[in-house]
Amino acid sequence: MNFNYELKSLKPISKLDRKIKFFSIDFESSTDNKQFKLCSICEIVKTKEHTEYKTYGFKDIDELFNFIHKKNILLLYCYNIKFDDCFLLNFLARNNYEVTFIESKQAKLGLKFRVKTNSETLEKDKPKWVILKDFLPFCKCSLEDISKKFKCKNKKYPENLKNEKDWENFFNSCNLEELQKHCDHDVKVLSESIVIFRQLIFDKFKVDMLDKKIFSLASLALKIYRVNYVKTPLNNSFFSLTYNKFDKTYDIKTNLELYEYVKSSYSGGYCEVFDNSFYEKGFCYDINSSYPFQTTKINFPVGKAYFTENYELFMETTQFIEGFCHVIIDFSSNSEFFIPVKKNGKFMRVKSIWEGKITSIELKYLLKHKIDFEFKSGYYFLDYDTSKSLENYCLDNYKNKQNESDDSPLREIFKILLNGLTGKFGQRIFNENTNYEFFTDLDSANNLDLNPELTYQVFEKGEIFIRESKYETETKKPFMFVSWSSLITAAGRIQLLDMIHLTKALYCDTDSVFTLSNSIPTNKNLGGWKLEKEFSEFRCIAPKCYAYSLIDKTKVVRLKGVPKKYRLDSYNKIINFKEGDSIKFIDIHRFLSFKEMIKRKNDVESSDLFTGACLVTKEYYPKLKEE
Length: 627
Fold this sequence. Notes:
28 strands
């Protein structure tokens, strides 16, 4: 017997658990090769009179880990784990620790580690995991900016450090004592920011962001949504519960046919160049919170999905509740209008015949602009979320943001929560996971007694051997409505397409258009258009590759994959670009990710196992997207 698998509300908490204790950690290194210099840890000590942010400095990693175990620290926060984890991994690898990475869409959110025990040890007898979380995904700006937005009392950044070059000079010139003071200051600011953030989130939403399961902004937004906005259970369309009468448990069954069908219609933002000429004047317009706005226009389907090959029935049932369909489109039937589609692994404009899955939102756009298509099949729904839970979440956060002053920390929180939720529903059911084990001898790393379902590879890094194992997991959660995410992004693209055609856009990217027109109506409402920039010169030669000068003569270059401090060197190359030219960057100094580090030797000499510092050369051959 099958039962509904429902997305249900979660209970709010009545108070913050003061027993949950966290420490903040920060590392300092040389800027050229990322060699470890020192680190600081901050402990929050509370008394009836005041709160003290107590710091401890370490110039040796062994001393740091002795302190972690002595204090029985189980929860650590850092800021930008991509930088800090290399020092921890160096120690963990050499000292026989278990390590588990917490990742989302290839972005590292945190890690867990503990001393490795033998295979016979029961889980309950093993040491507790130490969890390291990254606070950067919650705020997505510099620590200095956070200290200002949250009005931290510990904020004491030097006034003369105004840009990246100033900071680089500071780190290269200061002695270890000065560097330790700076590091101590950073962990104090980080701890205070987390305390303020945690309290503000609780006061407004009755949720604790220190929850062990919350590693990202999206997971925090989902918890807030379920606690405050899911009033009635929502029946998930892609899963059902099957009762197992033998052990009296429920198994979660996935409707794979429906899931794969709908997932095929799910694409992200659209980025395209329509004119790569040079212009002496131009304008950039943005949508005010595009994806949150789309939630106000959609009746989100829930419950059973019905398959049909009857076009009339599909069109009738999707007038009110959107659905998904398999179509063959002849884009040559209308050379002016189009919808972007997936082809050869890319999201692009097609000018001929294309076959695939789209949403009913996009199908209506084809009908409106008389683009020929053949309907093959579709899925429609008869039930939707009548409580408008997602719409209410977005509207409330937008209104709250608008009601706060520009310098209010709550304004920043509402802003990040507003854009943090909609993609969470599209989380993939099937994911490839990677696990790493560290060994001091090759024989142990090549142990043949392995799981045949996993794919293994061994890498040698000096005295350490790293075994990488890959495996696929199936995640079945009641919030996984890929249908919702697909409809939101499709509606966002349709709003973008309307503006592209209205303004004869030169370039577009997800929720913005670059155009020569300055007559677009603007307003501050959710979903309204706003004038973001005015150019004195502009040229775009490929997606995410453009240069412009603002009215005040400030020059800006966008070039995906190149750090900001190197981009300006290519300004004139982009402005004067000719077909067949290339844009070359020599000796870009960057830090490799952990996955990159273990697969190559460092280009800069270092005694540290996982520094990942290197110099790279990149050359681009920009051209317009074509079919």
